[in-house]
Amino acid sequence: MKKKFRVTYNAPVTLTFAILCALILLLNDFLLGKHLIPAIFTAPARIGSNGGFNYKSFLDYLRLFFHIFGHTDWNHLLGNFAFVLLLGPLMEERYGSKMVALMFVVTAFVTGVINVCLIPHPLLGASGIVFMLIILASITTLDKNVIPLSFIFVVAIYLGRELINAPKTENISTVAHIAGGLCGSMFGFLVAPKAKRNVKKEEKTLSERNSGKSEEKKERPSLFKRREEPREEDTTVVGTLEI
Question: Percent helix, strand, coil in the chain (nearest 5)?
Answer without folding.
Answer: 70, 0, 30
